Amino acid sequence: MLIAPYTEDKKQSLFAFTDEVFKELGKEFEPRGRHSFYNDIQSNFELFSCLTENNEVKGTVALKKIDEETVELKAMYLKKELRGKGYGKKLIQHAIDQAKKNNYKTILLDSQSRYKAALSLYRQYGFQETQRYNDNKYADVFMRLDLE
Questions:
Q1: First-last CA distance in the chain
Q2: What is the CATH number of domain 2-146?
Q3: List of residues 6+ apart from 40 with CB closer than 8 A
Q4: CB-CB contact of 123 with 116 (8 Å)
Q5: 3-state secondary structure of 71
C-alpha cells in the first residue's frame, strides 16, 4: 500500500471508491451535485492523497485551506476491509505531517457522532471538540487540533 498525491489518472478509481464507501455509510456520492468539488481536486484542496494498491484507491485523506493558518481535514475514508489495521492512522498522520510542513497552525474537521471509530481515531491524535465553524447541516461534531 502506498500513500501518494491524487493524480487525474486515479479519477475513475477514486470515484468508484468514494461511491462504494459512501453507500456503506448510508450516503449518496453526488459528483454532479454537492460533491462536485471532486471534479477539480487540484483547485479545491491543499492536499488530496490516496492510499493505493496496484493503482486502485483504497483510502483517501485531504486538507482544504480555510485561511493562512488553518486547514480542514476532509475526505478521510478507508475501505471497510482495511479499517482497524493501521491504515487510518497512516492517513491521518500523513495529513498532520503535511499541514505542519506547510506551516499551518490548526486543523479543523467536522463529522457525525455516529462515526464512533473515526472520532476515536481523531481523539488519539489529539483532536478535541470545538464549536461549530461551518454550516454543514450533516455534521454534529466539530474538532480541532492545534499544531504548535
A1: 30
A2: 3.40.630.30
A3: none
A4: no
A5: strand
pLDDT at 148: 82
**What does the pLDDT look like over 83-138, one tens digit per residue?**
999 999 999 999 999 999 999 999 999 999 999 999 999 999 999 999 999 999 99
Q: Which three cell numbers stand for residue 74?
A: 476532509
φ/ψ of 81, rounded to 5, equals -70, -10
pTM across the whole model: 0.94
Q: What angle do CA 83, 87, 92 make, to 5 degrees?
A: 110
CA distance 81 to 110: 24
| Short-list 140, 67, 77, CA closest to 107 | 67
C-alpha atoms less than 13 angstroms from C-alpha of 81 in its C-beta half-sphere:
3
Whole-number Cα distances in Å, 54 to 2, 3, 10, 50, 137: 9, 12, 11, 12, 36
Domain boundaries, the chain: 2-146
